[in-house]
Every structure is written in C-alpha cells, then in structure tokens.
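Record type: monomer structure entry
Structure origin: computed from sequence
Chain ID: A
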Amino acid sequence: MIIGSIIFDFHIPYSNSLKEKRMVVRSVKEKLKSKFNVSVSEVGNQDLWQSAQIAVVTVAPDQKQVEKVMQNVINFVEANFPELHINIYKELI
C-alpha cells in the first residue's frame, strides 16, 4: 500500500476577508473531492486572509497509481485556479 500526500500553499491575492478566502478554499476542496475521490482538508493558515494550506491524500496498491492521481490533482488545480499563487509539496509513503 502506498500513500501519497500533496500540500498546496495558496496565496489568494484578491481576498479581503476570511469569508472570501473560505469561499475559494471550499471551492477547491469540493472540486477535488468530487473529481478525484481523494481526502482533502485545510491544514494551515486558517486565520490568514490571503493564505491557505490544503492537504490532499490518496491511497493505492502501487506507486504508479498514486503518482498518476497526484499528478492529475496538481494539473487540475493549476489549470482551474490560475489566479492563485501556488507552492506544491509532494510525498510518497
């Protein structure tokens, strides 16, 4: 069994309140959960207006399958949220 995790550090330049930030975070989380069947959670920077940290985790029987899902998730986020500045950290366990 292989576990893959991705941490997205988002900078949301147009967010002027926690409410605006939470709308963006909620959108990202819901789209990832429904499209890729992965676990998603906001794990850091919860009280900052223009910064969010979201973790995505997937599990599969082999490394190739985990890497494919992780790359699809990264490509989806980059393509669908171009206005966000994103740093990405990946790990396989």
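Annotation 1: The chain has one domain: 2-92.
Annotation 2: Helices lie at 18-36, 63-80.
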